[in-house]
């Protein structure tokens, strides 16, 4: 298993997700009905299974190999690998895989949702056709009983009006659902709903004119009915009275029915004069029909324009809604980051856990934000009319995301400084405690008297060991003394400023007409606003920035003083140990002399 293998897996995964989407579109196009394709569902299950099993497994392998790679780098091992399989390139490929899977899975679910919608609408259309068949059968039966038409009309008219109104509202709802989902003229289900609308309009005309049901409208009337059927008002009478456009449409309906009845019943004549007269009249009627057709064609053109605008508005609304959701999320995380920045001097374990969770959340959100941006760029490529709005939204999202990343980097630098601060003081305090303990032990030993020679020998060995430990401690104290000059004055971070303090910027910060560069030296003026600092940049311009973006640089006088005291204590201990060692030597010599004096040389 190696980095090269993972890179090949990443590229193959991208091809798999692309092929899944192509197959999804093919299955949708090849459907003869609106029932959900088993192929699409199987592809969805395969992609989800692939993410749960394959992607998860390879993610663990990738992290394990990266850990091995990092350990080898720390050990100074030089790996001869090409640029194509470096960890950075592998991460880029891996991000492409995750982005592609997320995008294709969303597209596939959207397609399946569209198929669900078509299946539901087709069932509703079948139900409406059954209701229309019953109404047509009922009206044809009334036509055959022409003698009782008036009494029948009086009894049945309210029922017929209610039934037709219910069907018209239902058709308008179906058309709206289809348009919202992106279906338009030419789709089989849309055409079927339009056909039902034309039948309903024809029945409405028959009922309104108190006429006998005629054959369905011919091809010459289809365009007029198609242009108007999806705009049936819920309250027909009131809408017609208040809308000049609907009054014109109603007039067209009546005119078409009159012409239809006239042409169907027109005689051809049985001699030359009657035929000529009929031809002249028909030419006039035909010219009127052509003029109306031109007007209807314009209406159809305007309707298509309206549909396109509605589609663009829906897509723009969806995009802006998603982008707004991401901006709200980014704003929330910015607040959390700045909130942690205000507690740096009291940073606790719970704050550290919150920071780790925050880093994880932001890293996992990157693909979702990129998906929203890609959707906006796709709309731009498709030449969406609101390109300026989309570009502005994308730019705003990218700038907010970049700013969040910079704030997180600033927080990361602060936390590293805090860790160095606490580690330094922990180490120097431990060192001070050890020096104090050893000083006390040596002082106690020096106070003892009449120590046996054997015990003096043991104490001499211990003193030599202590001197060796002091040599090591001297190196540690020298390191702490050097490190003390790099420790930040943490306690000053959230204190009120009584005099101007030198600070440095941790990131690039853009403000109206003013910008701060990375590591730019500024002067802190005041910290009156919570979480905000007012600083003067290197050009003498005043600007207010989040406190987390600035840091008060070293030195920390407390750390330097502590290290200096440590050096002084160590020198005192070394002097004391030398005195102690000399005293032990003297005591051993005196005991030896005393012992020799006890010898009896004569014996």
UniProtKB/TrEMBL annotation:
InterPro entries according to UniProt: Desmoplakin_SH3, Plakin, Spectrin/alpha-actinin, Spectrin_repeat
Highest taxon above the source species: Eukaryota
Keyword S-adenosyl-L-methionine: no
Keyword terms: Coiled coil, Phosphoprotein, Repeat
Domain Desmoplakin SH3: 489-553
Coiled-coil residues: 456-483
Name of the molecule in the record: Desmoplakin SH3 domain-containing protein
């Amino acid at each position: 298993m190696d980095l090269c293998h993972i890179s090949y897996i990443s590229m193959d995964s991208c091809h798999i997700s692309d092929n899944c989407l192509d197959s999804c579109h093919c299955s949708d196009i090849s459907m003869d009905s609106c029932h959900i394709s088993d192929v699409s569902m199987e592809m969805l299950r395969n992609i989800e299974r692939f993410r749960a099993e394959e992607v998860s497994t390879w993610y663990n392998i990738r992290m394990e190999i990266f850990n091995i790679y990092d350990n080898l780098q720390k050990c100074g091992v030089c790996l001869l690998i090409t640029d194509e399989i470096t960890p950075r390139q592998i991460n880029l490929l891996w991000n492409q895989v995750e982005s592609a899977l997320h995008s294709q899975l969303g597209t596939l679910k959207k397609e399946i949702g569209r198929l669900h919608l078509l299946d539901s609408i087709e069932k509703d259309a079948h139900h409406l056709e059954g209701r229309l068949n019953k109404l047509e059968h009922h009206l044809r039966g009334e036509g055959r009983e022409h003698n009782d038409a008036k009494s029948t009309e009086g009894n049945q008219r309210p029922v017929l009006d209610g039934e037709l109104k219910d069907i018209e509202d239902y058709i308008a709802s179906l058309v709206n659902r289809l348009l919202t989902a992106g279906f338009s003229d030419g789709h089989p289900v849309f055409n079927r709903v339009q056909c039902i609308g034309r039948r309903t309009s024809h029945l409405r005309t028959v009922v309104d004119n108190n006429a006998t049901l005629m054959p369905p409208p011919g091809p010459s009337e289809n365009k007029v009915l198609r242009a108007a059927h999806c705009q049936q008002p819920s309250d027909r009478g009131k809408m017609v009275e208040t809308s000049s456009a609907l009054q014109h449409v109603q007039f067209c309906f009546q005119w078409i029915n009159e012409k239809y009845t006239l042409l169907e019943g027109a005689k051809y004549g049985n001699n030359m004069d009657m035929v000529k007269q009929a031809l002249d009249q028909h030419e006039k009627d035909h010219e009127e029909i052509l003029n109306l057709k031109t007007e209807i064609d314009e209406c159809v053109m305007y309707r298509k324009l309206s549909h396109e605008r509605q589609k663009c508005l829906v897509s723009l609304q969806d995009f802006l809604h998603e982008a707004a959701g991401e901006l709200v999320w980014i704003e929330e995380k910015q607040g959390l980051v700045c909130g942690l920045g205000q507690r740096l001097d009291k940073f606790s374990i719970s704050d550290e856990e919150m920071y780790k969770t925050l880093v994880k959340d932001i890293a996992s959100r990157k693909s979702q934000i990129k998906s929203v941006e890609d959707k906006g760029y796709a709309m731009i490529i498709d030449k969406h009319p609101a390109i300026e709005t989309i570009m502005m939204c994308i730019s705003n999202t990218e700038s907010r995301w970049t700013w969040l990343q910079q704030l997180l980097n600033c927080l990361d630098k602060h936390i590293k400084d805090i860790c160095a601060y606490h580690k330094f003081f922990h180490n120097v305090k431990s060192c001070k405690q050890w020096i104090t303990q050893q000083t006390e032990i040596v002082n106690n030993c020096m106070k003892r008297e009449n120590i046996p020679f054997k015990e003096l020998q043991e104490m001499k060995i211990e003193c030599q060991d202590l001197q060796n430990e002091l040599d090591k401690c001297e190196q540690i104290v020298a390191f702490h003394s050097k490190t003390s000059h790099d420790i930040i004055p943490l306690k000053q971070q959230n204190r009120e400023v009584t005099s101007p303090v030198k600070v440095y910027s941790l990131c690039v910060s853009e403000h109206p007409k003013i910008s701060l560069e990375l590591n730019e030296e500024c002067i802190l003026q005041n910290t009156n606003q919570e979480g905000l600092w007012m600083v003067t940049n290197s050009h003498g311009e005043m600007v207010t920035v989040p406190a987390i973006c600035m840091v008060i640089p070293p030195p920390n006088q407390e750390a330097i003083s502590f290290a200096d005291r440590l050096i002084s204590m160590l020198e005192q201990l070394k002097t004391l140990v030398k005195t102690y060692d000399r005293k032990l030597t003297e005591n051993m010599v005196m005991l030896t002399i005393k012992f020799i004096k006890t010898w009896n040389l004569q014996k």
